[in-house]
Amino acid sequence: MPLPRKHLIDESRPGCFHLVSRCVRRAFLCGDRAEHRRAWVKERIQAAGGSFAIDVLAYAIMGNHLHLVVRTDPGRGQTWTATEVAQRWAAAHPRLDREGVPTAWDPEDIDARSRDATWVGKTRSRLHSLSWFMKSIKEQLARRANHADGCTGHFWEGRFQSIPLLDERAILACMAYVDLNPIRAAIADRPETSDFTSVQERILLRQAAQARAHLTANGLPPPQGTVLPRLEREHQQAREEAGSWLAPIASLVTGMEQAPLLTRDDYLTLVDETGRVVRNDKRGAIPVQLAPILARLDLDLAGWIDLMQHGGSFRGSAFGSITARACEALRRGARSIVDRTRGLYRDPLPDPPPTS
């Protein structure tokens, strides 16, 4: 018989944990024509991460299970006012309408809760509990998915797993493992295409910050409004989400004061290099012929900035992204351009046709 979690984890002390939860009978949570539910899961993780005294370090939303790496901070909740406790609880536990869609609490309800000292004291302790953290994510998803499927009963398979991560090396290794889940499952072949993972979110944040800094340094206005509105919206969303609720990589190093901080680029390089290692027990790996991740990202960034700076000036013999121009060069037999772009993209370019 499993031991109660309170005997395994001392929730009065800070700690890092790898959390895993699977759907009952390994049924599909987000696969099999239910891919839209991945957005539901991310919304619940973001709501819980922004409400609890628990930092989200990494996540991966798979077809039938969920991975999280989190860090608890029990002392943080002691500084919250009664009103803040009530507001955080309401954000993490929205009401559900008849369609199972989460809705916000009424301000009157929040105010009434904040004036109940007994409820505030009990809730304050729950807001740093791993069990309540996962319950706020899983229960809402189960109710919403069961409503959409027109069924009742268990949606999640038993208790979630919680594995303590005892040092920084273990934390980083587990984060990389979680971020590489879609690649190991052969769903994606590189971090930047691994949808609904924390590594992809960190990449979007990096690209947005780099592009903004480049444009500002060259005396150009930051991208917004009518200039590539779709990309700007994506980058703005990445800044808001990652900047507000996903714990920064630099915060992972908590050892000696003289220890160098781990940067976001360091972590992206670590994930990219780890993903190239072929494992016999896994189906996928990052192709070895790909350029290093920072080179790929900088190339994509350069192409994006180039498009923005030209502002829609469609001149020259062809216009498009670097990849599209390489394919056109291949069609025309321009070997120099083809050779410069070979190995940087998902589909290897074929050899150019021989010349007579």
Task: Describe the structure in your own words.
The chain has 356 residues and is α+β, with helices and mostly antiparallel strands. It has 3 domains: 1-166, Alpha-Beta Plaits (2-Layer Sandwich), CATH 3.30.70; 188-291, no CATH class; 293-341, no CATH class. The chain is built from 14 helices and 6 strands. The chain has helices spanning 5-8, 37-51, 82-92, 107-114, 117-126, 130-149, 168-179, 181-184, 198-217, 229-244, 264-275, 293-310, 322-332, 335-341; strands spanning 15-22, 54-61, 65-72, 95-96, 102-103, 161-165. It has a 4-stranded antiparallel beta sheet with strand order 2-3-1-6, with helices on both faces. Strands 4-5 form a two-stranded antiparallel ribbon. A hairpin with a 3-residue loop joins β2 and β3.
